[in-house]
Specification:
single chain, 165 residues, mainly alpha, two-stranded antiparallel ribbon, 7 helices, 67% helix
Length: 165
């Protein structure tokens, strides 16, 4: 456990690259177009990678702000991942641009505009799954795992009992 926590930032960085890489492979090699919610979930990994590079460049990887900003990015991604799972399971409503619904209108031109502005990929459709788990579910579990260990790291290294020097 200590080995994981000592190299935690590197593990977050590697997991983020694997998550983004997997999404790009699914999108560009297997032609699985992402929905709007899938794209929002990627923002977390972009932020983590960017934060790692910026803080690493300035040699500030032991700075608490890096871990707090990562925590915020993870919470953002977890919010969208859990919401996406709720949409897929028909528990939660999706955003209008993601659900494929149309507003009632009295104009054919307005109806055409609505149809043309609709997202092609519906957020409630599961494009692929592994062992019955959708990509959004897997992403939720991954982000929950990262959030848990990132919180443990912050508590142990920045707010834990101080050892005598």
């Amino acid at each position: 456990m200590n080995r994981i926590l000592n190299n935690w930032l590197s593990y977050i960085f590697i997991l983020s690259i694997i998550a983004i890489g997997s999404a790009f492979i699914a999108e560009y090699f297997f032609n699985l177009a992402p929905c709007k919610m899938c794209l929002k979930q990627r923002h977390t990994y972009y932020a983590i990678i960017l934060l790692f590079i910026v803080f690493y460049f300035f040699r500030r990887t032991k700075n608490i702000w890096l871990y707090i900003l990562n925590e915020i990015a993870i919470l953002y991604g977890l919010f969208y991942a859990v919401w996406h799972v709720g949409i897929e399971q028909n528990i939660l409503p999706g955003p209008e641009s993601c659900s494929g619904s149309l507003f009632k209108t009295d104009s054919i031109q307005k109806l055409k505009t609505q149809i043309n502005n609709q997202e092609i990929i519906n957020c409630s459709d599961v494009s692929w799954s592994i062992l019955g788990l959708s990509a959004a579910t897997i992403n939720s579990l991954l982000l929950l795992f990262i959030l848990t260990f990132n919180s443990i790291y912050i508590l142990q290294n920045f707010y834990g009992s101080k050892k005598n020097n």
